[in-house]
Amino acid sequence: TQAPVNVTVTGAAGQIGYALLFRIASGQLLGPDTPVKLRLLEIPQAVKAAEGTAMELDDGAFPLLAGIDIFDDAKQAFSGTNVALLVGARPRSKGMERGDLLEANGGIFKPQGEAINAGAADDIRVLVVGNPANTNALIAQSHAPDVPADRFTAMTRLDHNRALAQLAKKLGVSVTDIKKLAIWGNHSASQYPSIQHAEVNGKNAAEAVNDQAWLADTFIPTVAKRGAAIIEARGLSSAASAASAAIDHVHTWVNGTPEGDWTSAAVVSDGSYGVPEGLISSFPVTAKNGKYEIVQGLEIDEFSRTRIDASVAELAEERDAVQKLGLV
Ligand code: NAX
C-alpha cells in the first residue's frame, strides 16, 4: 500500500473544517487508494474543540485515516505536509475597515507561508479558502520563496459549482451537461462568472440561454452574492458546500480535468488575459500531471472584458494595500 499523504487543515475546529475533515478521512480528497494523515492547526482557544472533532474522526473508523495530530503552532503543523488547506482566517467584524482586515489576515498568512517554506514536503500544494482568499494566498506565497509559486492557489471552485447549478436549473439540464464555465477574478462580489465559452450538450450556452438580461441581472449577481443568500437563509455562512468545493479543487489538481472541459481556480497569473503577473486571480484552468494551467487563447468579448477588468482591478488594489502594509 501507499505511504500516507500528510494533509494540514487550518481552522480545523470551524464549520468548514467540520464538514471537510470527514470528507478527507473518507478518501474523497485524494482517492480511495491513498491513506491520509491529518495535521490540524487551530488557535490555542480552539484546540479543545479540534480535539473533539478528532474524537469523532476516530469514531468514524475510516480505513484510510492513518493518524491525526493537533497543533497550535504553524511550524509544526506544516512540517512534512503534502497538501495544505488554509481555511482558518480572520473574519471581518462590524465596523472593520478593509485595511484592518488585510492586516489581521497578514498576521495569519505571513507566518503560515513562512512555515510552509521552512518545513513542508517538496510536493506541497496549498489551497487557501479563508477570506479574502486570493490576497491571503498572495501573502502566504510571497513568504515562501523556496516553494514554486504555482503551488499556491485560492478557492473559486465554490463559485464555479454555484454557477454550474444556476445554469443547469435555468436550462433544465444536469450539471454534467455543462462544460467550460469559468469564474474570473477575485473571490468576492466583483467576480465574473462567465458562460461566454460554456457549452450545454455541445451547444453554445449563451445561445441556449438566449437572454442577455438574465445573464447580467440574475445569473451573475446570484452566483456572486450566493454567500450572502446562504447566510440570510441559514443564519450561518456556507460550510458543507465550501468543504465540497475544496475537495473538488484538490482532487482535480491531483487527478486532472477531463478532456474537453476545464474548471476554475485562482492561480498565480503569468500575465494571461491582461491580468497583472503575480496576482492570484481566478481563471479557467485545466489540470494535467498534477499542475493547474491557465486555459490559453480564448477570445474575450467586450462584456467579459469589462467584468474581468473590474474584478482584477479590485485584486490589484488589495495587493497594493498589503504591499503598503509590508505584507508582500
Ligand atoms: P469558522 O469561524 O467557523 O472557523 C474558522 C476557524 O479558524 C476557527 O475555528 C478559528 O479558531 C480558526 N482560526 C482562526 N485563526 C486561525 C489561525 N491563525 N490558525 C489556525 N486556525 C485559525 O469559519 P468557517 O465558516 O469555517 O470559514 C472559514 C473561512 O472560509 C472564512 O474566512 C470564510 O470567509 C471562508 N470562506 C471561503 C469561501 C470560498 O469560496 N473561498 C466560501 C466559504 C467561506 O465563506
UniProtKB/TrEMBL annotation:
NAD(+) binds at residues 11-17, 105, 112, 129-131. Pfam families: Ldh_1_C, Ldh_1_N. It comes from the Bacteria. Its EC number is 1.1.1.37. PROSITE patterns: MDH. Residues 156-322 form the Lactate/malate dehydrogenase C-terminal domain. CDD domains: MDH_chloroplast-like. InterPro entries: L-lactate/malate_DH, Lactate/malate_DH_C, Lactate/malate_DH_N, Lactate_DH/Glyco_Ohase_4_C, Malate_DH_AS, Malate_DH_type2, NAD(P)-bd_dom_sf. Keywords: NAD, Oxidoreductase, Tricarboxylic acid cycle. The active site is at 187 (proton acceptor). Substrate binds at residues 92, 98, 131, 162. The keyword NAD applies. It catalyses: (S)-malate + NAD(+) = oxaloacetate + NADH + H(+). Residues 6-145 form the Lactate/malate dehydrogenase N-terminal domain. HAMAP family: Malate_dehydrog_2. Belongs to the LDH/MDH superfamily. MDH type 2 family. Catalyzes the reversible oxidation of malate to oxaloacetate. This is Malate dehydrogenase. It comes from Amycolatopsis ultiminotia. The gene is mdh.
